[in-house]
Each structure stands twice: as structure tokens, then as C-alpha cells.
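INFO  loader      accepted 1 record
INFO  loader      residues=456
INFO  predictor   begin
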Amino acid sequence: MKIQFTPPISFLLFLLISLFISSGVSKAIVIGVHGTTIEAYDESNWSTISSATLTMNGFTIVNSPSVTWNSDDLLYYIILHTPGGTVGAESQLATVDPISGVCTFIGYLGSDYQSLTYNSTASVMYAMQGDENIVVAQRTRLSSVNLSNAATTTIGNFGYSEGCHIIAFNYDDNLVYLWSGDDDLAGYSLLKINPNTSAQTGVIQTGFQMKFMSGAVYRGGNVFIANGRSVSLTNCGLTVTSAGVVSFVANSATLVYGLAYRDPLLPVELTSFTSEVSDNSVLLKWTTSKETNNKGFEVERSSGNNSWNKIAFVNGNGNSEHHINYSFNNKNLSSGSYSYRLKQIDFNGNFEFHDLNNEVFIGVPEKFELLQNYPNPFNPNTSIEYRLPLDGFVNIIIYDYMGREVSSLLNEYKTAGFHSVNFNAGSIPSGTYFYKIIFNGESAVFSTVKKMMVIK
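INFO  predictor   done
INFO  writer      dumping C-alpha cells
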């Protein structure tokens, strides 16, 4: 098993986590910002593990309101406030090394951006802007962010008052959670936002009484880790459920903004991962003996060029203490060699790779075959599969019930192997049709006909 890390940021943090685990602590590490510092905290008691001053070449940093973790490129992204900057912008987007505090500039976000959160399911970074100088109806603006140049695209405007505007993405319900309001408010507003439709649902928070939130990050299992100030004006670490139930965890020395979250390890124990070949299909099977916070498995395939492609996602079972069997059938493969691996992902976006030990080989068919089209009956599209044990010229023709040619689907040279061709019947009426394959090779010829039906 291989855990993916990208030095120097992830490698240094991995060393930090390793030391953290060896000290007997199994909780995850929370990364947050406060003023001009970035810090790592013990989730269980909010004690500080490491601290560094934020720096970025060519900029004077006034403060940072947010940091988040991108589980796709394994980088931490941060909003930095500078005194004016250029072109009137005061919020800069950068990547940051949480150990050294060194930031790398990406681009200017605009004015008064306050929070970031990453959706690894859709590979989208969200940013929340709280501009106190515009009308209330547009004061809190949610946008998506281009991570190459910091350009933003507005998703929706939400009319909340001044103060902190904190967002965190929930991987269970695919909603953005917004804590928003003003320091002077006795309570704090929680809003669930659908980033695809901008639909919003308000939630009344219960439990431990908070004056406002300064940071939040999704931990999984419909629970957020958060930090903020209580009604008694103490800084504290919290948990908040998706239903709005707030629980006190521990006092914190400062208000912590952000947040980002990394598990020390991925506690999913894979006991087997095997493959079975049948014609041009590969059945992958794997078994887990224990799962904690398991969102699921991306199935990835490589065909010998060292380039991995995602071909499927299989949902996990969250938390489990017993054996669970999984499978995925990769159908309609061409002849050749393939490698497979699983990318196990938890609800925080952390992941681990599991490789299939053996290479899978799809050979050539032993005989000529023309398979029944699928689906059948159909409207308007269907797929026709055929199998060739030899190289040669292939012609596939569609006829109506009177024997008149309707379409010539294919007329070209094909190598031995498993093949398919699609047929669109959008331009022909309902009825019974026939499809014929004609093969001409150096040492063999082959021809056969099958019937199909179009129903509109």
C-alpha cells in the first residue's frame, strides 16, 4: 500500500503527523490561521503542535482569514490580506506550506474574501466574500475559484450582515455550510447552500451557545470541526453536526480561522484485491476487514503508458468492524494489457492507493462472432459488438425487412480483438431491421446476419 504525498509540503506534514502519532495521539491534525501565523492543532484538545509566520515574496501580509486543503493536488490554499495590493485588490490567493509558512502567489481574488473550502468530488474550490460596502442583499457572495489565476465566478448572493462569513463543504450531502453574522449578534446564523442551484436552507443551532464562528472544516459523518468565540467571550474548539448541534471540545488560546483537516492515517484495512478475466471483461473484487470514515473507492486503470484514468467510483460503508466485499466489472475492453488500482478516499478527501498485484491481459477471440445488439429493442441508439480472431477488412451494413440497405456502419481494416460500433436509428421509422457483418482476411472470410428492432 502506498500513501500519496507530494514534497515538500505534504512530506514535512507527514513527518509532523508521524511524530504526533508516535506520542500516543491518534486524533487528526487541524490546520488554521491566526493573524499572520499558520498553526497545527491537536483536534482533541486544541493544543498547538506547530506555528509559523506567513510570508510571501513581494507582499506585506496583514492577516489571513482562511486556509483549506485540496485533496486532489495535495496543496494547502490560503487567503492573504495585504495593505491594498495592486489594482485595488486586498485579498490574494496563494498556496502555503503549513510548516514553514511560506506562501506562493496565485492571483488577486478581489476585496474582502474571508473563507475557502474545497469540493474534491467536483474538483471545485469555493470562496466566500463578505463586502460590507455593498447592499445587504449582495453582501455575502459565494463564488467558485480558478486555481490557476484566482479568477472567480459568482454562484450566488446571500443577504447576511457584516462580520465573519465561514464556509465548509459537506461531502455527505454535497452542500456548502455557511456560518455568517456579526460580532454584535447574540446568536450565529447557519445556512446550507446547494452550490449548483444556490438554493438555501436555514438551520437553528442548538447546544453550546456561540457568539460567532471563526473557522470550520468537515470531518465526515455529518460532523464539522470548528473554532469560534462563545457567548462568554472565550475562544474554543467545537464540533457542529449538520443538524446544527454544537458541542464544546476545549478552550483554545486564540481564535483560529480556516480550517484545514488531515487524518494521520486512513484506517481502511484491505485484506484482498483480485481480478478475474472473462472474454473482454475484467471483474475486480476486494474485501475490507475494517473501515473508518470511508467514503469509497475510485477504480483506476492504466494500459501500459503509466497514465492512470478513473473509470468508476464504488461507495464505501463509512464505518465498519466486519468484512465487506466489493466488486466492479470493467466490460468491453480491447485486447491488450491493463493495470488496476484503487484510490480509497475518506470523507475529508484524504486518500490512499492500493495496487492490483498482477497485470491483466485481454487476449484475442478464438472465433468470429457477431453479438446481439444492446439494447434491443431500442430508440434511437444501440451498440453492436463483434469479435475477430484475425486481422482483416470489416463491413457492417444495416438492412430493412425488404432487404434494402439503410446504412453502412463500418467499412475499414480492423485488427484481431473485441470491437463494437454504435448505430443511431433516429432517421428511420420503427420496425424490424437486420445487420450483417462481412469479414475478408488473408486466410479467412466470415459473414453472418442478426435481427434487431426499432421502437419509437
